[in-house]
Amino acid sequence: MKKIIAANWKMFKTSEETIQTLTELNTLTENIPLDNKEILIFPPFTSLEVAAKIVNNPYIFIGAQDLYPAKEGAFTGEISPTMILACGAKWVLTGHSERRHIIKEDNALVGQKTIFALASGLNVVACIGETLEQREEGNLYDVLAEQLQQTLAKLPTPLSPERLVIAYEPVWAIGTGKTASTEDIIEAHTIIRELLKNILGVSAMQTRILYGGSVKPENAHEILSLDNVDGLLVGGASLKADSFAKIISA
Ligand code: PGA
After folding, report:
1. Considering only CA atoms, which residue is closest to atom 1 of ligand 1?
2. For a surface tag, which of 28, 45, 174, 201 has the fewest beta carbons within 10 Å of its beta carbon?
3. Which of 53, 44, 56 is nearest to 7 (CA)?
């Protein structure tokens, strides 16, 4: 199973800044052996097309940060999987905590988006994770179970396991500088693996589970080496090409 190192650029970078960062990343990754990794970059919609054109490394793929679950129609402001694919992007994020908490997306909508994206031919990184309050109330298991069950209900079949990736991102560790401890990460990833076995059966063992939340060059290697951690989803530290390249080579 190839490890995934993913960059979530959030609402950062114009298309010109995207060109500059990816040109640097092309150079910095030239000599990093990547045959056992997949690198995913999630720029804003406005940079998707230029990003897909500029990356020249066969191990780097582009993805969108969101989608609307319809082919086309009267959905002002929304973007369909067809449009994303036409930009040259192959991946999409669903259920990122900023969309859940700021835009108020619920589990049902995250599920619809995940299923529609997969059925449309996009590969998906579906994000889940608990808030500090939920964790402190002892609800970690229930929150992860609910998010996973609703996100993965009615998956299209057959589905090859490398097309669906889960990202565990504890909300309290995103953009805060507070990385979850290795024990916290192992506990959550073990729970997720067990839940995936119930939902997906045998393909759960081949489903990659990423960790996200204040990943940086200094902690990337240690987190990547933990049991059931199959990659990283990186926000802030992915915005500069040199810092992301260090995480890629961790
Ligand atoms: P962070 O963001 O690395 O800045 O904490 C991670 C994410 O939101 O995907």
Report:
1. 235
2. 201
3. 44
Please identify which residue in the block is written with the tokens 């926000």: 235
Q: pLDDT tens track of the chain, all 250 residues?
A: 999 999 999 999 999 999 999 999 999 999 999 999 999 999 999 999 999 999 999 999 999 999 999 999 999 999 999 999 999 999 999 999 999 999 999 999 999 999 999 999 999 999 999 999 999 999 999 999 999 999 998 888 889 999 999 999 999 999 888 889 999 999 999 999 999 999 999 999 999 999 999 999 999 999 999 999 999 999 999 999 999 999 999 9
CB-ligand 1 contact for 129 (6 Å cutoff): no
Q: Determine which residue's CA is closest to atom 7 belonging to ligand 1.
A: 235
Q: CA-to-CA distance for 30 and 93, rounded, in angstroms?
A: 26
Atom of ligand 1 nearest to the CA of 215: 3
Which residue among the candidates 96, 98, 130, 189 is catalytic per the annotation? 96
The active-site residue out of 38, 49, 105, 169 is 169
Whether the CB of 212 sits within 6 Å of ligand 1? yes
Q: Is the CB of 175 under 6 A from ligand 1?
A: yes
Q: Does residue 77 come out as left (phi exceeding 0), alpha (psi in the -120 to 50 range) or beta? A: left
Neighbours of 235 (CB within 10 A): 22
Report the distance separating Cα 110 and Cα 198, nearest Å: 20
Active site residue 101: no
| Separation of alpha carbons 185 and 5, rounded Å | 17
Does the N-terminal peptide bond of residue 158 adopt cis geometry, omega within 30 degrees of 0?
Answer: yes
